[in-house]
Design a protein that fits this description.
Number of domains: 1
Order of helices and strands: EHEHEHEHEH
CATH architecture: 3-Layer(aba) Sandwich
Shape: globular
Largest sheet: 5 strands, parallel
Helix content: 40-55%
Strand order of the largest sheet: 2-1-4-3-5
CATH topology: Alpha/beta knot
Length: about 160
């Protein structure tokens, strides 16, 4: 199952970029044997200043046709790492070819796109900067792969 991380904004070089690249590499390496990956980033940017609605249209265009759409949203489901891993495995085992995780911009995800989501995940009630959410999501995807592989990376 191919995994897509669709995010508003361009991540420049720096500590966040380094962390995302590290976790993407780890996920691809661990997930390959599990039928997960590769993990591909799609960055969109509304240069015309159209706001959340314009970002929503750019995001929608970046999502592969037929992909399961997962929004990262504070209103979403709060999950444990093992539950997240189990959910990924269920999607994979159900024959999903693509899953797209969407991270909105500063104003969030446009309501029409949010309404289209098949699933929504929250990293808690607090609002996180979207660049940190990208790091956290990449790490959780890697952690999910290690859980499914039976690796000791995840400790309870």
């Amino acid at each position: 199952m191919r995994v897509h991380l669709v995010a508003v904004g361009r991540m420049r070089s720096g500590p966040e970029r380094t962390l995302v690249e590290d976790y993407v590499t780890r996920f691809d390496r661990t997930g390959r044997a599990l039928g997960l990956g590769p993990l591909t980033e799609h960055e969109v940017e509304d240069k015309k200043g159209g706001g959340m609605e314009a970002e929503g249209e750019l995001i929608a265009r970046a999502i592969p046709a037929g992909a399961l759409l997962v929004t990262m949203d504070e209103r979403g489901r709060v999950m444990s790492s093992p539950d997240f891993a189990e959910t990924l495995a269920k999607w994979r085992d159900a024959g999903r070819q693509d899953v797209a995780f969407v991270i909105g911009g500063a104003d969030g995800i446009a309501p029409p796109l949010r309404a289209r989501a098949d699933f929504s995940v929250s990293f808690g009630a607090m609002v996180w900067p979207h660049m940190l959410v990208r790091v956290m999501l990449a790490e959780q995807l890697y952690r999910a792969a290690t859980i499914l592989a039976g690796s000791p990376y995840h400790r309870v």
